[in-house]
Design a protein that fits this description.
Layout lengths: L1 E10 L3 H8 L2 H10 L6 E8 L2 E10 L6 H4 L6 E9 L6 E10 L4 E11 L4 E11 L5 H29 L2
Helix pairs in contact: 1-4, 2-4
Amino acid sequence: MTTHIETSASVTSGIDKVWSTLSDKAYWEYDAANLSDEPGEVNEFSAGDNGLDVTLFEVLPTEALPEAVRSMVSQNLKLKRVIHFDTPADGVAPGEMSAEIKGAPVKFTAELTLTGDDASTTLEAEADIDVTIPMIGAVIEPKVADAVRDIIVNEVSLVEKYISDNA
């Protein structure tokens, strides 16, 4: 079974400033260090005329997991997250994100859309979460979906904080 969610969050900076931030490896290093309690790392980064591609290796502490999952996990989980955005055209940059948890039957994919003007930018995400654990996967998926929603909203908050701190 797959759980589908839709979420959005906005930044009070124009799309050009947000795009400039996302196109800077220093931002992604900041993101990896601050998205969760355990710092992650930027494994790959490229930005250019064809958009941007980022691969992050992150650590999910067991405390951040839904309670129903904690009893099945004895250590922090390693998450590989891959993000791509096309270069914005007419205030819109489509993108996608995928993530897999090493050694766990959990993955999610998201279609992303960055839209904005000179004053604000919004990230919209439509994500599908799959937990392929027989009998309890369907119970866990909504809790993982909440965590995915939190990642997306926190990502936007980090963009806003990074822009504010580095203006």
